[in-house]
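4.2 Preliminary Data

To establish feasibility before requesting continued support, the project team ran the inverse folding procedure on a target of 666 residues. The structure was first converted into the token representation described in Section 3, and no sequence information of any kind was made available to the design step. The complete token record follows.
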């Protein structure tokens, strides 16, 4: 056999199908095998291979084992005279394979070669020819000098940008997206180093080809198109972190000898600094609320100190104390979610300011070294109370205006029975006034609809599909998806910031604070459940613990006093004692269950005790809404409706109202 083509796939079904079709054309008259290693994709890749390319040898992994290990799985069974490691997000020309085979036959000293690689816009992809990242080469790359002076031989070595891309060139390394290797050479070099999860394994492999005496060449005799970044874009791992980790592994592995030792550490420090810079650049847009809060708190603290002492000489002694108070306030803001989904919440900001103020006062009381003047602390509190909610009011108004941009579409998945999901998909595409961008549909079993590119995957893979496609809205469109199934998804996906909506079917009882959108005869019901909000759950748990303590401390004295009053009542004139059976209602008989509430297995107000639900998702309650309504003759669907209303509207005050009514028996 002349050639073994190896492709590692992860959630790029459409690109993989396109690549295989182009490869099939290019393989005309060539004895070859194709091996696809799938790293546990959830986009229907395996079903597509089974349906359209049954001749392909498929290795299906149960987890994402990384690029190097997956390629090694295929290399171990490959039987071709040559092996071609090719990315799934590529497109090859009709003559690409024959040209590369001819080139390798004419150059027996070449163990590894790569052809010209083009971006989707036709420009040259610089990674197709590279120099090893020695300390100097890495410095020019990390410092940006290679980009500033691409035609300089001194600074442009990393991607050899100073050379003509139409000239054949001996190179240190080629792109991992297209590595054409001689099997004889692979046997002497060995497999890919699996310590590289993603990125860097191609550099390491090329380095080892050189070590054992094989040439590595770049040849422009043919070209392919590489849609760079598609695989890593859909990956669940941190591509940025893996890139810099791979560079660090390469430096430790190959530049750790005595002669390289000082430069080796300089290189590693440079890689780390560049990684930190990339992280800051990547997440800078999410850090601005923290910076605004921190800057404002420092400013009002300085003004408060100056207002008290009328001099700047005290700034030095109070500097450390100010930083302690700053950290306390920022932690308080973080604890209520001000730097996540509740970035513009005024109520949470005010609560967090008060909480932080109490913590700072406590620090002042117990640790005298943190003791500001009371006047300074109060002035700072007033300033923070003005600044922190103030900028949020301004920002939220601006954000609201931007959010109504006609180009601001929400990426949406439709979940449910195929026919109905396709119908909704079409309607969302035609009603752009609602700003939905339907990405695709998710069904119970996607292999039944493999021909439809709109089908993204199975219902069981919904959480991962949401991450892969950056979904903002999920619309449940099937009567088969009932409330019990939704409970399995809502807690986890709610923390991902995903909004849920429902096309009413058997779940028309979704009521409460919902908003409803009409798309002709199609209604979408907002499915935001207050019960699953992290802040509500925290407050609910604290309330449970406080109430259990109070109830434990008060119930025994009340019942004891009542018993003694009954005992000493005058004969013939029975004492009208407080009737605990009447006043405590259903709560009295369930008091032994307080231990379950204390342990967290139950909650004070929750689902009915005898309603079959997943207790890890909705905890059974000491009382429920059924206890304050005439719920003796409700069927199960009506009981679910009542529970659903509670989950939509749950709050601390709502729980307190239900509890008091259950205790009073009203």
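Position-by-position output of the design step:
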């Amino acid at each position: 056999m002349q050639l073994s083509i190896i492709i590692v796939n992860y959630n790029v079904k459409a690109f993989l199908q396109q690549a295989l079709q182009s490869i099939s054309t290019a393989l005309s008259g060539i004895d070859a095998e194709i091996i696809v290693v799938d790293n546990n994709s959830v986009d229907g890749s395996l079903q597509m291979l089974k349906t359209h390319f049954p001749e392909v040898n498929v290795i299906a992994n149960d987890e994402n084992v990384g690029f190097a290990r997956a390629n090694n799985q295929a290399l171990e069974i490959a039987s071709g005279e040559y092996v071609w490691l090719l990315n799934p997000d590529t497109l090859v020309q009709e003559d690409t394979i024959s040209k590369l085979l001819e080139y390798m036959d004419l150059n027996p000293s070449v163990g590894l070669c790569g052809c010209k690689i083009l971006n989707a816009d036709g420009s040259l992809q610089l990674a197709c020819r590279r120099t090893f990242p020695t300390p100097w080469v890495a410095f020019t790359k990390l410092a940006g000098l290679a980009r500033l002076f691409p035609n300089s031989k001194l600074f442009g070595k990393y991607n050899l940008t100073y050379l003509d891309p139409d000239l054949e060139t001996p190179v240190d390394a080629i792109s991992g997206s297209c590595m054409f290797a001689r099997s004889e050479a692979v046997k002497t070099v060995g497999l890919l180093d699996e310590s590289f999860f993603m990125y860097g394994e191609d550099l390491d492999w090329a380095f080892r080809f050189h070590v054992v005496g094989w040439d590595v060449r770049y040849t422009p005799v043919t070209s392919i198109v590489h849609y760079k970044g598609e695989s890593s874009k859909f990956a669940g791992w941190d591509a940025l972190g893996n890139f810099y980790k791979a560079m660090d592994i390469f430096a430790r592995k190959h530049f750790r000898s005595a002669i390289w030792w000082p430069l080796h550490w300089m290189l590693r420090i440079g890689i780390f600094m560049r990684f930190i810079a990339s992280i800051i650049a990547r997440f800078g847009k999410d850090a601005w609320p923290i910076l605004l809060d921190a800057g404002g708190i420092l400013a009002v603290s300085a003004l408060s100190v100056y207002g008290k002492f009328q001099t700047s000489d005290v700034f030095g002694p109070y500097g450390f104390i100010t930083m302690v108070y700053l950290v306390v306030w920022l932690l308080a803001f973080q604890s209520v979610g001000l730097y996540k989904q509740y970035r513009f919440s005024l109520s949470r900001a005010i609560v967090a300011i008060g909480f932080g103020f109490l913590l700072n006062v406590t620090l002042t009381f117990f640790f005298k070294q943190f003791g500001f003047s009371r006047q300074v602390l109060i002035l700072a509190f007033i300033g923070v109370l003005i600044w922190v909610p103030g900028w949020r009011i301004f920002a939220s108004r601006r954000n609201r205006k931007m959010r109504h941009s006609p180009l601001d579409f929400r990426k949406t998945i439709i979940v449910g029975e195929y026919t109905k999901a396709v119908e909704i998909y079409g309607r969302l595409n035609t009603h752009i006034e609602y700003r939905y961008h339907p990405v695709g549909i998710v069904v119970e079993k996607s292999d039944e609809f493999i021909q439809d590119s709109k089908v993204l995957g199975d219902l069981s893979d919904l959480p991962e599909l949401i991450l892969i496609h950056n979904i903002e809205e999920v619309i449940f469109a099937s009567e088969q998806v009932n409330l019990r199934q939704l409970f399995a998804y809502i807690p986890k996906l709610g923390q991902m910031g995903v909004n849920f909506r429902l096309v009413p079917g058997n779940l028309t009882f979704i009521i409460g604070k919902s908003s409803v959108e009409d798309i002709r005869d199609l209604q979408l019901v907002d499915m935001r459940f207050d019960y699953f909000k992290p802040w509500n759950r925290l407050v609910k748990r604290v309330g449970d613990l406080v109430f259990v303590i109070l109830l434990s401390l008060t119930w025994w004295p009340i019942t004891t006093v009542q018993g003694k009053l009954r005992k000493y009542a005058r004969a013939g004139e029975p004492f009208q004692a407080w009737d605990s059976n009447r006043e405590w209602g259903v709560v009295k008989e369930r008091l032994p269950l307080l231990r379950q509430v204390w342990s967290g297995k139950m909650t004070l107000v929750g689902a009915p005790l005898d309603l079959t639900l997943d207790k890890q998702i909705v905890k059974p309650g000491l009382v429920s809404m059924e206890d304050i309504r005439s719920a003796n003759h409700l069927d199960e669907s009506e009981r679910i409706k009542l529970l659903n209303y509670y989950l939509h509207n749950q709050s601390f005050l709502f729980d307190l109202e239900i509890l008091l009514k259950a205790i009073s028996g009203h």
